[in-house]
Design a protein that fits this description.
Blueprint (H helix, E strand, L loop, with lengths): L2 E8 L3 H17 L3 E9 L12 H11 L5 E4 L2 H4 L3 H14 L4 E3 L4 E2 L10 H34 L12 E4 L2 E4 L4 H11 L6 H11 L9 H9 L6 E8 L4 E8 L6 H12 L29 E5 L4 E5 L2 H4 L10 E2 H20 L3 H44 L5 H40 L5 H8 L2 H11 E8 L5 E7 L2 E7 L8 E6 L4 E3 L4 E4 L13 E3 L1 H10 L3 E3 L3
Parallel strand pairs: 1-2, 1-3, 3-4
Antiparallel strand pairs: 4-5, 6-7, 8-9, 10-11, 11-12, 13-14, 14-15, 15-16, 16-20, 17-18, 18-19
Length: about 575
């Protein structure tokens, strides 16, 4: 017996929800299907897919991917969605990615023949029209609702939704809620007291009224203090679907606070340190450059008063729901000079070049850039050709001129080719960007000892130079001895490692990823072009960290630093 999933959807009426369920259970019985899953929720018809699928659709897709169902039953086309593009895409996904038939009760048709497994192409075309009609119907419903609201507004009748905290709703407007209105007034008065801020006001009010969870949030406190409706003048907005404009209407409601108190609060809020940026935000050299290797979040700069030290660490486990457990700390006094001296090492050699060498290098980079642009233009043409092929293939399939297996096979080949071309174009874009950077370097006569001394005396300039070369820093501990940094630069990825606990050494080692890649699972470096680094005859080789230290030292791949 095939397993069926019921997809239900209604806005507010629980009876409608139960009716859909009962009707689809009868359909399942008629087709001798076992109801294995029921997915459904109370949602509106607007289907704002920019915020993602409905929860029930996500759960349905998961069930398909986990092979928990064989068919899907839906009451009406509009119950799936009222968005044309989303509906067509979703049906195509179920037909071609999952090969799972959908039965629409209002159409009395399957998207896929349950016996032969063939896609019903004619019904696909019919569904396109049905989704288009559903979308037009939704626009019409919205327009009628907006017109009704405008009529109410014209008569001075309140039409908006949830009333502000401190009010209750009645037929033609809002009434003051006697048990909550005094709390609103107390909040305004408390905030105006000397020394009070949003956080202290929130703590005071919530501490006094702990049963009202709404008062726990600083955001809610700020929202209440900003809401002019409490002065007796409420506003509501209506969006015009036809002219694409928003109309604002004002209504008189009972006041809880006076205009003078409201204005005083707004003046204080405008100067509140939590609502205005700090005039001189703290800046530091590696700001927005260090990213967690586990969750990708930026590292936070933290100061320890007890030890009088500054370090970086990932704090996303406290600030979000990522659950990141990274324990990698970086001491600012060590990592700052390592990264800066590394960048200087990469840039400083340009300052030692004579005019002839610079011109030769610039000519070489211009040549590289021209070739990359030429290759990229050719790839753009190839990409468009493949896109055209894919469109023609889909048309053939929809017109039933090609069988399903042949369609999937050819589609897979085209998509792989598109992916390959896109990757090549991205690499060429990086190459062009690198050439531009190098041309700028070779044209510059700035990279001298004196230049770097001047830059180091100005944090803004130092940050600018650093960011022109470094795109990101990804730290991880190799073990308790070494600290390892993956440094993404304009010239590619570099591996930098050092021993933070060896206070006397003050030396870090670096090597480009194309020369040696670190494998944390075996704690070794792999060198694909070993003869470029050593005197060995071996084409490739594996090295421990201690061995790689010696190789880097012999090749000059090291930077000295002072804390």
């Amino acid at each position: 017996m095939k397993r069926a999933a019921l997809l239900l959807r209604c806005s507010t009426n629980i009876q409608d929800y139960n009716r859909q369920k009962l009707e689809l259970e009868k359909v399942a019985s008629r087709f001798k299907l076992k109801v294995a899953k029921v997915f459904g929720e109370h949602v509106t018809g607007k289907d704002d897919i920019r915020k993602g699928n409905r929860k029930s659709v996500d759960e349905l897709i998961d069930a398909c991917e986990n092979d928990e169902i064989d068919v899907v039953l839906i009451s009406e086309v509009s119950r799936l969605t009222r968005n044309f593009l989303y509906g067509v895409t979703l049906v195509d996904k179920f037909n071609r990615d999952y090969s799972i038939p959908i039965y629409f009760r209002d159409k009395r048709k399957w998207t896929i023949d349950v016996e032969t497994g063939e896609v019903n192409l004619e019904f696909e075309k019919e569904l396109r029209k049905a989704f288009e009609q559903a979308e037009e119907e939704l626009a019409s419903i919205r327009f009628r609702m907006a017109s009704g609201k405008r009529d109410s507004a014209g008569l001075g009748q309140w039409f908006a939704g949830i009333p502000p905290f401190g009010y209750t709703r009645q037929k033609n407007g809002y009434l003051v809620k006697n048990e909550y209105a005094p709390i609103v007034k107390e909040m305004f008065d408390k905030y105006l007291e000397e020394g009070q801020a949003l956080i202290t006001t929130t703590r005071y009010i919530y501490g006094k009224y702990p049963d009202i969870k709404k008062l726990k949030s600083i955001g809610n406190t700020k929202f209440i203090l900003n809401n002019k409706a409490y002065t007796g003048r409420a506003e509501a907005n209506i969006y015009d679907e036809i002219d694409k404009v928003t109309d604002t209407f004002y209504f008189d409601i009972p006041a809880i606070i006076d205009e003078e108190t409201y204005n005083k609060v707004q003046k204080k809020l405008a100067n509140n340190r939590t609502t205005t940026p700090y005039p001189k935000a703290t800046k530091y050299l590696l700001q927005k450059l260090i990213k967690c290797s586990i969750c990708g979040a930026f590292y936070t700069r933290l100061h320890s008063n007890k030890r009088d030290t500054v370090h970086f660490k990932c704090t996303s486990d406290k600030n979000s729901l990522t659950g990141c457990k990274s324990q990698v700390y970086l001491n600012e006094r060590i990592v700052n000079p390592i990264i800066w001296n590394f960048v200087k090492e990469q840039l400083f050699y340009v300052g030692k070049m004579n005019v002839e060498q610079r011109l030769e290098a610039i000519a070489g980079e211009n040549d590289n850039k021209s070739k990359a642009i030429e290759e990229q233009e050719a790839l753009k043409i190839s990409y468009k050709e493949q896109e055209t092929k894919l469109t023609r293939l889909e048309d053939l399939y929809l017109d039933n001129d090609i069988d399903k297996n042949r369609y999937k096979e050819r589609k897979s080949k085209i998509e792989k080719e598109l992916s390959s071309i896109k990757a090549q174009m991205d690499r060429l874009t990086d190459r062009i960007r690198l050439s531009d950077f190098n041309i700028k370097r070779f044209n510059s006569t700035d990279f001298t000892e004196q230049y770097f001394k001047e830059v180091e005396a100005d944090l803004e300039k130092q940050m600018k130079v650093l960011r022109e070369y470094v795109k990101g820093i990804y730290p991880l501990y190799i073990d308790k001895v070494y600290c390892f940094l993956k440094v993404d630069t304009i010239e590619g990825m570099f591996n930098i490692f050092y021993e933070p606990r060896k206070a006397q050494q003050k030396c870090a080692y670096f090597i480009k990823d194309t020369l040696a890649q670190y494998h944390p699972d075996i704690r070794n470096f792999y060198t694909p072009n070993n003869t470029l680094l050593t005197d060995s005859d071996e084409v490739d080789a594996y090295y421990t960290l201690e061995e790689m230290k010696e190789i880097c030292s012999k090749n000059g791949f090291e930077v000295r630093y002072r804390e």
